[in-house]
Specification:
It is an enzyme of class 5 (isomerase). With 372 residues, the protein is an alpha/beta fold. The protein has helices at residues 12-31, 72-94, 100-104, 108-111, 114-128, 202-210, 213-216, 230-243, 255-266, 275-278, 292-295, 308-318, 321-326, 328-340, 356-368, and strands spanning 37-41, 64-68, 98-99, 137-138, 144-147, 149-153, 156-159, 168-169, 177-178, 181-182, 185-186, 190-191, 195-199, 219-223, 247-250, 283-287, 304-305, 342-343. The protein has 15 helices and 18 strands. Helix 1 runs antiparallel to helix 2, helix 2 (72-94) packs across helix 5 (114-128) and helix 12 (308-318) runs antiparallel to helix 14.
């Protein structure tokens, strides 16, 4: 159960073969009186030691964790891992899909909470050297999309172009997304958009929809409704790879908005093993910047003091190596937020004129190149 980590085939038949090999090795160890050892690579998409020489990589593991029956604290983790692996094996054999929540409710007394299942799924992905969707484990999609785009998912057709300001759910099975079929031949995803805009919150997405933003601007607008789920990030990655459009992100001017922005661009620590396939290095930060409060004369009642938790989160984010290495200007803005000690929501920009965000702020920043 050792070996060099590398991405391997993610075809169901190959994954099932690796599951059989894994379980066979466990059974052989037990049959021969040996305590099985499960070696799980550990990944990290950033380090937080400012004095260390940073060698973070999106491809290579940073050490490994050893699970063994000889440690009492590991016994339950291995039990959970094997139960979830058995469920995954059945999903692959029957060519069915299940959500993380579905898996949790198969053994709720054993799993105790959802995070236990989530960790096991991530560990299985690392052991089998694949992505989560390859296991036929899917998220309950929450992302939304609108704009100048036409595509299909399996038998469903999404024609956003005819009504570009109408919201559509982001497909869960992103691997099945393609263009419409013409004359029995598959076509490419179709778009006449000039850019992609990602907004943090559904309320801002709805504001843009109500203002007919996409009717007036040739673009695609996406929201993950907070921290983005995997389908939203995969769908965005697919659009960028296919359409080669510039991409901008609009988030609240607070530590959580900044963290959501960083999740899009650099990936999450929880799924660092898949960061290379999920991260969006092309992402530009459109706003909101700390300096926007003065530039656009936001009312004082829109500026909220940073809480102690906000400050702790900001200071922790500032330690991430990728900020200094890849986006030092982002880091300066986060430092400025801390220095000023205030935060504000995107909606504050429309405090005086409801349509300001869609009519002035976003178009002027994109056209003027005012982004980081």
């Amino acid at each position: 159960m050792e070996g060099k980590y590398r991405r391997r085939s993610s075809e169901p038949s190959d994954l099932l073969k690796r599951i059989r090999e894994f379980t066979r090795a466990l059974v052989e160890d037990l049959s021969n009186g040996r305590s099985p050892v499960i070696s799980i690579h550990r990944f990290s998409n950033y380090c937080t030691n400012p004095n260390a020489i940073c060698c973070c990589s999106y491809d290579l593991p940073k050490g490994r964790e050893i699970l063994t029956f000889q440690r009492e604290s590991h016994v339950h983790r291995i039990d959970v891992l094997l139960r979830v692996l058995l469920i995954v094996q059945k999903l692959l054999q029957e060519n069915k899909h299940g959500s993380k929540r579905d898996i949790y409710y198969m053994h709720p007394a054993v799993f105790s909470e959802q995070s236990v299942v989530d960790r096991a799924i991530n560990e299985i992905c690392i052991l089998l050297q694949c992505s989560r969707h390859n296991l036929n484990v899917v998220s309950v999609g929450k992302g939304l999309v609108m704009g100048w785009l036409r595509f299909s998912e399996s038998e469903k057709k999404f024609d956003c172009i005819n009504r570009p300001s109408i919201a559509h759910p982001i497909p869960v099975h992103v691997e099945e997304v393609k263009g419409f079929t013409f004359n029995s031949k598959p076509a490419d995803i179709v778009s006449v958009a000039q850019y992609i805009l990602v907004v943090e919150k559904e309320t801002v997405f709805e504001r843009l929809a109500n203002d007919q933003f996409c009717n007036k601007n040739r673009c695609i607008v996406i929201t993950g409704r907070g921290y983005p789920d995997i389908p939203t990030r995969r769908f965005l990655r697919l659009l960028i790879d296919t359409l080669r459009l510039p991409t901008y992100c609009l988030v609240d001017c607070d530590p959580y908005g900044f963290d959501i922005l960083a999740t899009y661009r650099f990936g999450s620590m929880q799924m660092a093993y898949d960061a290379k396939l999920l991260r969006i290095p092309e992402m530009n930060w459109l706003g909101a910047f700390p300096s926007d409060s003065e530039k656009y004369n936001l009312p004082n009642q829109c500026l909220l003091p940073l809480t102690a938790e906000d400050k702790r989160k900001s200071e922790a984010i500032l330690l991430r190596c990728y900020l200094q290495r890849e986006v030092p200007k982002w880091r300066l803005e986060l430092e400025l937020m801390l220095q000023r000690g205030v935060k504000f929501e995107i909606e504050a920009l429309s405090a005086r004129v409801l349509s300001f965000l869609s009519a002035e702020y976003i178009p002027s920043k994109i056209q003027g190149g005012i982004y980081l």
